[in-house]
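[audit] Reproducing an earlier prediction to check determinism. Same input, same settings, fresh worker. If the tokens differ from the archived copy the diff job will pick it up downstream; this log only records the rerun itself.
[audit] input (159 residues):
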Amino acid sequence: MNATFAQRNDNSRMPSGGYLTARVAGAAATGAALTYLSLKLVDAADHHDSQTCAKASGFCMTVWPVISIPASLAIAFVVLALVYRLLGIHPWTSVVPPTLLLTPLPVLAAEKVAASWLAVVVGAVMASALVLTLWRPFRTLGQSTTAVMFAASLAVLFL
């Protein structure tokens, strides 16, 4: 193994200030943009379904609401993988899957409590908190933030 490669990907020490700020801000911006895109995609599919089924007299369901959620997850996976690679967030395989699995519940809870603007903020906070877990000095902060938001979303959605 190349020594410079091992030093460059050493996550035990935090990166210098500018790099850390750029990575976390980039993750937050990406999370916010993907949350907004996903909410708009699902809303557009539901709107199309309701318009199409308004004219029908019996049971009516289009395929768009069913396809919109997996499509938004697939788009988010590709965009997160590309953006995190460009930002130098390594290993992205330990950040992208938790982001895709843990973020939807807090986003849904935020949309249920307030509106879509709060869901976008929650998407940004979740993405940046999960990126913070890569570096040992910030791992506890990132995990605590993620756990609190996830537990609060479970309480909002299921209690």
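[audit] rerun output stored. Observation attached for the diff report: The two ends are 51 Å apart (CA to CA).
[audit] end
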